[in-house]
Design brief:
The protein is α/β, with parallel strands linked by helices. 40% of the residues lie in helices and 20% in strands.
Length: 266
């Protein structure tokens, strides 16, 4: 019988608020559902024409134009006005999704790739960094904000041609998405290295490769990630070295506090 993985969520005592950007509404809806199930409020980036009524008290949608630094700031401020403060932020680069949107190598897509898949992540990262620093300085409880760079890669054309890799139905990353994914990965690593000594922010590099059984299951990916983040709040996680925190964490990895974040059943 096929094995199933069940993710045990460590519920916090009160709702945290998580920002999700990069992968936008409605494409991030399943991921957001997993976040809400982990007892969190969630604020999602969306295009203005796709925003639906904010009928839920725990899910909010706000316009975000990746090409604008002012829009990045406005997005964060709207979330704070709704929930008080942002505790966690996830910048989700989904190469599988983007390979559909940026498939053709055209001048228009070159511009869109630079705006959406590169500049957007730079602007929102800066605003999150600034907001976490300001919140930490104002607060009497010195608790760092958590910033997650989440990467879901897919094989590149170079990898398939050079190695003869069989993708088994997994999309192959187009030229522009492959370049943007490399930029995202490099930026995430160097962002983490630059700010790893700061007290006001904790940076997590996370990835979900196609070998993972939750590669196409955003709700379960969110459940694992929230469990991992909750584990970081526990006392034992303080022993994790700065150098260790610069390594990419693969989906399904046990949290540093030593909790078993999932159970396998047969």
């Amino acid at each position: 019988m096929k094995k199933k993985t069940l993710y045990a969520i460590i519920l916090p005592t009160m709702n945290k608020t998580m920002l999700i950007a990069g992968k936008k509404f409605p494409d991030c809806s399943s991921f957001a559902d997993g976040v809400v199930l982990a007892n969190r409020n969630v604020m999602m980036a969306a295009d203005m024409g796709k925003i639906k009524e904010n009928s839920s008290e725990v899910e909010k949608y706000f316009d975000w134009n990746e090409n604008s630094s002012l829009s990045a700031r406005s997005f964060i401020l709207q979330g704070e006005n709704s929930f008080g403060q942002i505790d966690e932020a996830v910048l989700y680069f989904d190469a599988v999704l983007y390979s559909v949107f940026f498939k053709d190598f055209t001048l228009e897509n070159c511009t869109r790739t630079a705006d959406v898949l590169i500049k957007g992540f730079l602007y929102i990262s800066y605003e999150i960094l600034t907001r976490f620093r300001d919140t930490f300085q104002r607060s009497t409880v010195k608790k760092p904000g958590k910033l997650v760079f989440l990467l879901r890669p897919c094989p590149t054309k170079y990898e398939t041609v050079r190695t003869g890799l069989k993708t088994s139905g997994i999309p192959v990353s187009d030229l522009l998405t492959a370049a943007a994914a490399a930029a995202f990965s490099s930026f995430a690593e160097n962002f983490a290295a630059t700010y790893t000594e700061e007290d006001f922010i904790r940076i997590i590099l996370a990835r979900c490769d196609n070998e993972s059984e939750i590669y196409r299951k955003d709700t379960e990916l969110a459940a694992w990630l929230c469990s991992y983040l909750d584990s970081l709040d526990c006392e034992k996680s303080e022993s994790v070295s700065k150098k260790q925190s610069l390594a990419w964490v693969r989906s399904g990895t046990k949290g540093p506090a030593g909790f078993n974040l999932f159970f396998k059943t047969h």
